[in-house]
Design a protein that fits this description.
The complex is a heterodimer. Chain A is about 40% helix and about 25% strand. By secondary structure, chain B is mostly helical. Chain B has a single domain, classed as HPT domain (Four Helix Bundle (Hemerythrin (Met), subunit A)). The longest helix of chain B has 30 residues. The chains are: A alpha/beta, B mainly alpha.
């Protein structure tokens, strides 16, 4: 018997306190064909994630008011319902230690600012290609 | 901070400050990186809303408040706020190709706990570069909407 695993959510969570970056990311996510759910700080993202795990991916800024991106990722990796969600961490800081800390916390990808629309589009396509509906033997 | 890092920091600051002062704050044409604007344009099709104009509008709406917040934080010797706001302005500016403002913000982040004279020196440079960038952004916006 074959069972089809369906990922019904088309939503991508975006949390960034910078309106310029938030709009840029939102535009790219929409263009790639997903539905953006945007928030402007880490605490709001945390509140939403406590009640809602229906996201295809999350794009989080490292430095946000109230709760930083790394802390959000650590929380997501301790919750079974959130573990499957790939997380892209974006930051204007560029150093090896920060990158290592991000992956250690559970980030799926690290995107330094400034980034081009192409870079984010390609990253999303690469990450989400692995999340396309698949078929497996039951 | 080690002596080596301080020397490197000083070198970087001077390398930023000297060219900016030499050309009177930088011509408007140099304030925006055309490569960054082109990369934003390439991802959009004709007929869609101009993403660069939308981003410029957001930037011009928010960035003046961030510069003011940096000024206030510097006056109050609040290194934490200064660093956080400079970081935000750096990311926003870099994404629009406003390289000089992004670089000065990076220097402010690094020097947020240094002497008031040092912070004020960088603050003056930030205001100068920001005003240049603001004029260039307004011109770019008009050009695109024409």
């Amino acid at each position: 018997m074959l069972m089809k695993i369906k990922y019904t959510s088309n939503r991508i969570l975006i949390a960034d306190d910078d309106p310029v970056i938030r709009h840029l990311v939102t535009s790219i996510v929409t263009r790639v064909g997903y539905t953006p759910v945007t928030l402007s700080d880490g605490r709001a993202a945390f509140s939403l994630l406590k009640a809602d795990a229906n996201f295809k991916a999350a794009i989080l800024d490292m430095s946000m008011p109230f709760l930083e991106g790394l802390d959000l990722i650590r929380y997501m990796r301790t919750e079974k319902r959130l573990m499957r969600i790939p997380v892209v961490l974006i930051t204007a800081d560029q150093n090896i230690k920060l990158m290592a800390d991000s992956f250690a916390a559970g980030a799926t990808a690290f995107l330094p600012k400034p980034f081009t629309p192409d870079q984010l589009q390609n990253l999303l396509r690469m990450l989400l290609a692995a999340k396309l509906p698949s078929t497996r033997a039951a | 901070m080690s002596a080596d890092l301080l020397r490197m920091d000083d070198y970087l600051a001077k390398s930023l400050i000297r060219p900016a002062l030499a050309n009177g704050g930088g011509a408007a044409t140099q304030a925006l990186d055309p490569v960054v604007l082109a990369s934003l344009d390439e991802a959009w099709d004709e007929g869609e809303a101009d993403l660069v104009v939308e981003l410029i509008d957001l930037y011009l709406g928010d960035a003046p408040q961030w510069v003011e917040a940096i000024r206030t934080a510097a006056a109050e010797n609040d290194a934490t706020v200064l660093k956080r706001v400079a970081h935000t302005l750096k990311g926003s500016s870099g994404s629009l190709g406003i390289r000089q403002v992004a670089e000065v913000c990076g220097m402010l982040e690094l020097n947020c706990s240094e002497s008031a004279a040092r912070v004020n020196e960088l603050l003056q440079l930030l205001v100068q570069e920001f005003n240049t960038a603001r004029a260039a952004l307004a011109a770019e916006r008009l050009r695109r909407l024409a």
